[in-house]
Design a protein that fits this description.
- The structure is a single chain.
- The protein is mainly alpha-helical.
- The protein has ten helices and two strands, in the order H-H-H-H-H-H-H-E-E-H-H-H.
- It has helices at 2-17, 25-52, 55-60, 65-99, 107-123, 130-136, 142-154, 177-183, 200-214, 218-223; strands at 158-160, 166-168.
- A two-stranded antiparallel sheet has the order 1-2.
- Helix 1 (2-17) crosses helix 2 and helix 2 (25-52) packs antiparallel against helix 4 (65-99).
- It is elongated, with a radius of gyration of 28 Å.
C-alpha cells in the first residue's frame, strides 16, 4: 500500500499545482489515486514482461536497457496524462454544470455585480483579488467574465495592479446607471436570475416607466 500512497502523493502535487488554474483538491486526489494504482499495476506488468520475454536481449544485446527504458518512460508518461485527464474531466464537468445557469441576458447585472464587489473592496481599503472574483462568480463562463473585466478596464472604470488584483478607477458616485448602460452593448432583462437576485429592485425600477407607457391605450400613444 505504501508505494501507492507515495505515488499518489506525487501525482496529487502535479495535478494540484502544475495546471495554470485553480483545481479542486478532491478531483486532483481522485486522479492521483487512479494514476497511482495504474502505475503500480504497470510496474508489475512491466517487470513480468522483462523476466518472461527475453527476446529483446537477442535483438538489442548489450544495449537492451535503452529500448526498455524508452518503453517504460512512454508508459509512465501516458499514465500521468491519463490521471490528469480524469482530473480535468471532473473539473470541467463541474464547471459546465454551473455555467449552464448563466445567460447573456444577465450581462448588465454581471457588470453591476463586479462594480459592487469593487466598490465594497474599495470601502474596506482593499483590492479585489481575481481568486475571490472568480469564486464569487463561479457560474459565469471564463471567456464571458474575462470579456467584461476587459471592458471595464477599457472604459477606465477599473484597473489592475502589479499583483493582478482589481481596483476602482473612478468615483462611482459621479457615474450614473444610465452612463453605464449606454457605454456597453447590454440588454436590460426584466427578471434577474437567482444568482443576481439582489439586483431585481433595480430592474423593477427601470421597467416601471416602461410599464406605465405600455399600459396606455393605443389611441393615446398614436395621437401623441
Amino acid at each position: 500500500i505504501l508505494p501507492i500512497f507515495s505515488s499518489a502523493a506525487g501525482f496529487f502535487v502535479i495535478y494540484m499545482f502544475v495546471p495554470n488554474r485553480k483545481v479542486n483538491w478532491r478531483y486532483a486526489l481522485i486522479g492521483a489515486l487512479f494514476a497511482a494504482i495504474c502505475f503500480e499495476l504497470a510496474k508489475k506488468g512491466f517487470a513480468l514482461y522483462v523476466t518472461t520475454v527475453p527476446s529483446y536481449q537477442k535483438i538489442y544485446g548489450a544495449v537492451a536497457a535503452i529500448p526498455l527504458f524508452l518503453i517504460w518512460t512512454f508508459v509512465s508518461w501516458n499514465l500521468i496524462l491519463l490521471g490528469g485527464t480524469i482530473t480535468a474531466t471532473l473539473e470541467s464537468s463541474r464547471w459546465r454544470l454551473h455555467v449552464q445557469k448563466y445567460h447573456n441576458s444577465q450581462r448588465f447585472l454581471l457588470v453591476l455585480e463586479i462594480l459592487r464587489l469593487l466598490h465594497e473592496s474599495a470601502q474596506q481599503g482593499h483590492t479585489l483579488r481575481h481568486e475571490r472574483l472568480t469564486k464569487h462568480l463561479y457560474f459565469v463562463p471564463d471567456d464571458e467574465l474575462n470579456h467584461q473585466l476587459q471592458w471595464l478596464v477599457d472604459q477606465r472604470l477599473m484597473a489592475r495592479d502589479q499583483k493582478g488584483a482589481y481596483l476602482l478607477r473612478q468615483d462611482l458616485s459621479q457615474f450614473t446607471l444610465k452612463d453605464l448602460y449606454r457605454k456597453g452593448d447590454f440588454k436590460l432583462p426584466t427578471k434577474a436570475e437567482d444568482y443576481f437576485k439582489k439586483h431585481q429592485p433595480v430592474l423593477d425600477e427601470c421597467w416601471q416607466s416602461v410599464d406605465n407607457l405600455f399600459n396606455q391605450p393605443l389611441t393615446k400613444v398614436l395621437k401623441s
